Amino acid sequence: MFETATITQSEALYFQILDTAPDAMVVVNRHGNIVFANAQTETAFGHARADLLGKALERLIPERFSAAHKGHLARYFADPGLRSMGSGLELFGRRADGSEFPIEVSLSPVRTSDGVLVSAAIRDVTERKRIEAAAKLSADRLASAVESIQDAFALFDASDHLSLCNSVYRSLIGETVVGPVVGKPYQELLDAWMGDLDFASNEERRLFREERVARRGDLAGSFDVRTRDGRSLRVIDRRTAEGVIVKTIWDLTDDVRREQELGAARAAAEAASAAKSEFLASMSHELRTPMNAILGFAQLLQRDKIEPLSERHKERLQQVLKGGEHLLRLIDDILDLSRIEAGGVAISTESMSVRELLDEVRKTLGPMAARDGIEVTVDAMPEGLPRVAADRTRFLQILMNYGSNAIKYNRPNGKVTFGAFAVDGDRLRITVTDTGIGIAAEQHGRLFQPFQRAGQEMGPIEGTGIGLVITKRLAALMQGTVGFRSVAGNGSQFWIDLPIDRSAPLPDAPVMVRADEPVRIAGQRRPLILYVEDNPANVRFMRDLVNSLEDIELVTASTAEMGVELACERLPQVIIMDINLPGMSGLDALRLLRGQTATRDIPVIALTAAASERDRHRGLAAGFCQYLTKPVRVDELVESLEALLTSRLLGPST
Ligand code: ADP
């Protein structure tokens, strides 16, 4: 273990202790020769101690460092003391097999009886270097991952100092900060950054800062800011379990701009769609007014008992009426479709019994079916059939569409059957099945599309090709879906699936009772009707109509103001009122009439070209006893007049 035997007892003890040290311990004399090497030296360098004692220390050092090492040693002996060797330099040891390994060396002088020696504690730091390299690698990876984040990213340590950030964060926040940003406390960075932010007032700025500081302890938080140069940023903070705050800042400028552009485009589209609806509504009004004259007079001619038409003229007139009815249906359908597409149809869902509705549809379709010799039936339905959530008017419209198609596209003595059953547990399927002509398979893809008549374009059956598309859109508005199956020559089945109303599992309500048949006029007094209308053709038509009735007097007024005056003066049994009038409207006139005792109870029928559902609701809510639309259906008007006049003349008030 030791080169010479000339050592004192305490020196021997010292070397004995060194022998047990965990590091390699080598003692050299001022000539650079090894005078002692401990057991760990043998292990670390792979030399037997005997190979080392008395040999130059360079044996343990890579050759490239040998020359420099001699100089170091000389300098050390000139000023011996405890110190680490080659501080800041990478030091290497050389094993017996020539391989190198990183070492750390600390030197201390040993004063012996032979003079000063130097003891070198040599630690193999291979493992530490490996761990350091691995740690550096993962730190580098983290840094490059953080750097690759496109948004600004920063980590604040538990004492709320910035410990890591990417360059986006640095350029966002750091430009306002003097010196490096990492290491800076949060509040200092916040204050610097606030110089870049845009606030409406100093008060807003103060509140913003107060809130940021107050909410710093939150587990998570997010807030939006605007910069002075017009960018919109969203800041998101999350606190980890270790108390570290992870901050990300997203630049939302493009999103906000896009949203604004989208909002503007949406507003423009809405305005355009509103304009379109308005245009269509006024077009429909304009078209309905002349149609009133065409269809009204045609009906009068048809009914004329004084100068009856010849059969030939009656037939031709029938064509006029048919054409007119078709045009009218087209106007209604187009208006309806464009209103739905413009989002102008309000849906009000309620719970309803399908059986009750189907009975109503069957009765309404009765006359049309009878004309074509078709039998319409409703399948027997189980007592517990669930109710559906739907808009009554629109659901009826759908069933009428399906039902009238099933009659139209049927065969002589054919059948139409309505049915209903639950599907998927939460929907009720309402079916309309016919024994009609069916639809060829190659036409199936064209159904439920606007103006598609699926092969009937040239056929004898009249249609507009809008009914099914309206049906589909209305169904969607009620969260419903539509479908069909059909075989050419073998009938069709159309259906609508509607959500079941689970909130009201009530049994089906009884079928509505219909009003009594109108009673024939049996009056002793000559009844008086007041007609308020500005269009001379319509006035003329009404005159002719009333003349064709038995013994009824008609007075007319071309403005609402005149109408009210006449009503007070003559107290007619019934008033027929147009709504769009020059000056005061028909609605205002009605209000005036309702406000006076003498005229309060006179029934007022609205007869108007304002034919939308909304107009109708508004009219009925205002107090019109009936709301009839132009072109007038003569039978309907006559029926109403007869019923009203009879009750007015026979009723207790007369
Ligand atoms: P329209 O009946 O006015 O032409 P629809 O939109 O109601 O328009 O129907 C579109 C087309 O679908 C019809 O033209 C017809 O070809 C076909 N169709 C609809 N219902 C039936 C049915 N029950 N049987 C046979 N074809 C039908």
Provide an overview of this structure:
The protein has 654 residues and is α+β, with helices and mostly antiparallel strands. The protein is built from 18 helices and 23 strands. Strands 1, 2, 3, 4, 5 and 6 form a 6-stranded antiparallel β-sheet that branches. The longest helix is centred in the middle third of the chain and has 51 residues, at 253-303. The structure holds adenosine-5'-diphosphate. Adenosine-5'-diphosphate is lined by residues 401, 405-406, 409, 434, 436-439, 447, 453-456, 463-468, 492. Residues 401, 405-406, 409, 434, 436-439, 447, 453-456, 463-468, 492 line the site of adenosine-5'-diphosphate.
Question: Which hetero ligands occur in this complex?
Answer: adenosine-5'-diphosphate
- Decide which structural class fits the backbone: alpha+beta
Measured distance between first and last alpha carbons: 143 Å
Number of strands: 23
Uncertain runs are: 505-524
What percent strand? Answer: 15-25%
Write down the Rg. Answer: 50 Å
Dominant shape:
elongated
The number of helices is 18
**Can you give the helix content as a percent range?**
40-55%
Main beta-sheet annotation: 6 strands, antiparallel
Mean pLDDT: 86
Give the structure's gist in a few sentences.
This protein is an alpha+beta fold.
What order do the helices and strands come in, and which of them pair?
Blueprint: H1 9-19, E1 24-28, E2 34-37, H2 39-45, H3 49-52, H4 63-78, E3 83-84, E4 91-94, E5 100-112, E6 115-124, H5 126-148, E7 152-156, E8 162-165, H6 167-173, H7 186-194, H8 202-214, E9 220-226, E10 232-239, E11 245-251, H9 253-303, H10 311-341, E12 350-352, H11 354-372, E13 375-378, E14 388-390, H12 392-408, E15 415-423, E16 427-434, H13 467-477, E17 481-486, E18 492-499, E19 528-532, H14 536-548, E20 553-557, H15 560-570, E21 574-577, H16 586-594, E22 604-608, H17 613-622, E23 626-629, H18 634-650
Parallel strand pairs: 13-15, 19-20, 19-21, 21-22, 22-23
Antiparallel strand pairs: 1-2, 1-6, 3-5, 4-5, 5-6, 7-8, 7-11, 9-10, 10-11, 12-14, 15-16, 16-18, 17-18
Helix pairs in contact: 9-10, 9-14, 10-13, 11-12, 12-13, 15-16
Bound molecules: adenosine-5'-diphosphate (ADP).
